[in-house]
Structure formats: C-alpha cells, structure tokens
Design brief:
single chain, 158 residues, alpha+beta, Pnp Oxidase, Chain A, 8-stranded antiparallel beta sheet, 22% helix
Length: 158
C-alpha cells in the first residue's frame, strides 16, 4: 500500500526482492558478537524468506541461540549513487516437519531455477545431511526514501 509518495517505495521493495537472488543475514551470537553472511534465497509473499545452509555455519549457530536477525537485499551491480535496498527485521528458524514440506515447495523458487538452482528434497536437508532449510519470517521492511530527512529509512509493505 502506498501513501501517495513518489516513487512508489512499496513497488521498489517488491522489485528488489523479485530480481535479486542473494540476501545478507545479520546475526549475533549469544554474547552479541555480530556476523553477516550472504545466502541464496527464495521469497514467499515478501514476508517469508527461505535459504539452505549448514547448521554448522556461523550464522546458523547464531540463529540457534538468537533467532532475531536483520536482512538486507540489494543489487551490488548498481552504479554508485543509484543503489537501493530492502532492509528487514525478522525471526528465523530451521524448518521441521510440515513446515519443511511447505518450504521445499517454495525453495528455490522460479527465480532460483532461472538462476540455475535446482529443487531440493527433504533428504538433502534433514539430519544427517549436510544442509538444513531455514525460514526468516519478516516483521518489518524498509527502503531508503531520498526525500526523507534526517533518517531516510521508510517503512514499506511490499
């Protein structure tokens, strides 16, 4: 939903999420030590973001003890001064049971398949397999509004 602002920042957020394949996860360990990691992702309704990772990866170990995270998706190829990003607050979980089956229907998504990713089976993301499927449930989205001041971060609803 927009509020008459130009450009339509909700549409900007949707376009960024639709056209980029990687997101950067911002996690922290039990002591608050930060860590960031880029991961390939698939989105469902812009509110549920799925990715596959090793449970031994630093970001996965961090999420096991502190599931709150921040996420940013951006086009790293944009010319200087023209880039835009979607910033998100979320809570993440490793997917079990019925949630896993649903996640496997979403991940890697049509965009992921076009980018060369293949469908994943439950056996590939259940112990003792090397990877797990994770989901971030987004609670807030923002983009930068060049007309806002002093904080240009503006809430959006993609």
């Amino acid at each position: 939903m927009t509020s008459g602002r130009e450009p339509d920042l909700d549409a900007v957020a949707r376009a960024i999420l639709d056209t980029n394949h990687y997101m950067t996860l911002g996690t922290a360990d039990a002591d608050g030590q930060p860590w960031v990691s880029p991961v390939f992702f698939a989105a469902e309704r812009y509110r549920e973001l799925y990715w596959m990772s090793s449970p031994e990866a630093t970001h996965s170990r961090n999420l096991a003890v502190r599931p709150e995270l921040s996420i940013v998706v951006f086009d790293s190829q944009a010319p200087v001064g023209t880039g835009q990003a979607v910033y998100m607050a979320a809570t993440a979980t490793e997917l079990p049971g019925a949630d896993l089956e649903h996640g496997l229907q979403v991940y890697p998504g049509d965009g992921g398949r076009r980018a060369g990713a293949r469908a994943v089976t439950a056996e590939e993301v259940l112990a003792p397999a090397r990877y797990r499927l994770y989901r971030a449930s987004v609670t807030q989205h923002w983009v930068l509004d060049p007309d806002a001041s002093p904080d240009q971060r503006t809430p959006v609803s993609p």
